[in-house]
């Protein structure tokens, strides 16, 4: 059980953070990471609009029930878990298929983001994340000793 990588995508679809925590995924260069972020952002938006209608009607006063986009993709080699914040920032966690509770893990990464990035007075919204405390917290949480 291992976490391979974490990507953070801003609300406009730009990659603002990526880090690899363990080998196992194919190596990508910086342009490929940017293309991956933009492509996933678009697919996520499309998946929100084609979400099937719910079997129960919307509550009174609510026109449409809230829809989410892609939350998880699984293959035989990895599992991709997406968590979208209320502000539209997306956290993409790549983990082994056997990794339990990836939704809990990605939400914990969001907590680190809220604590160390958003509370940092020197961080500008939607810009690349270069916050050492955030890196250290993620490393301590996601890197498993061998």
Distance between the termini: 12 Å
Share in helix:
25-40%
Q: Which secondary-structure class do the elements indicate?
A: alpha+beta
Per CATH, what is the topology?
A: Beta-Lactamase
DSSP strand (E) fraction? 15-25%
CATH class group: Alpha Beta
Number of strands: 5
The succession of helices and strands, N to C, reads: EEHEEEHH
Order of strands side by side in the largest beta sheet?
2-1-5-4-3
How many strands, what sense, and barrel or not for the largest sheet? 5 strands, antiparallel
Give the overall silhouette. globular
> How many domains would you count in the coordinates?
1
**Number of H- or I-type helical stretches:** 3
Mean pLDDT: 88
Task: Describe what this molecule looks like in 3D.
The chain is built from three helices and five strands, in the order E-E-H-E-E-E-H-H. The protein is an alpha+beta fold and 146 residues long. It has a single domain, classed as Beta-Lactamase (2-Layer Sandwich), CATH 3.30.450.70. The protein has a five-stranded antiparallel β-sheet with strand order 2-1-5-4-3. A hairpin with a 4-residue loop joins strand 3 and strand 4. The chain starts with a strand and ends with a helix. The model has no long low-confidence stretch (mean pLDDT 88).
Short description:
With 146 residues, this protein is of the alpha+beta class.
Secondary structure layout:
Layout: E1 3-9, E2 15-20, H1 30-49, E3 72-74, E4 79-84, E5 90-95, H2 102-117, H3 132-142
Antiparallel strand pairs: 1-2, 1-5, 3-4, 4-5
Helix pairs in contact: 2-3
């Amino acid at each position: 059980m291992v976490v391979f990588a974490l990507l953070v995508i801003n609300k406009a679809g730009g990659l603002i953070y990526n880090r690899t925590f363990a080998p196992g995924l194919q190596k990508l260069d910086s342009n490929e990471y940017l293309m991956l972020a933009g492509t996933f952002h678009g697919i996520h938006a499309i998946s929100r609009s084609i979400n099937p209608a719910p079997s129960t009607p919307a509550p009174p006063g609510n026109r449409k029930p809230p829809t989410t986009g892609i939350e998880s993709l699984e293959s035989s080699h990895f599992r991709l878990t997406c968590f979208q914040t209320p502000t539209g920032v997306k956290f993409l966690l790549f983990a082994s298929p056997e990794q339990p509770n990836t939704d809990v893990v990605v939400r914990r990464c969001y907590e680190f983001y809220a604590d160390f990035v958003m509370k940092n007075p020197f961080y500008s919204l939607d810009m690349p994340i270069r916050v050492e405390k955030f890196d250290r917290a993620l490393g301590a949480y996601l890197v498993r000793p061998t």
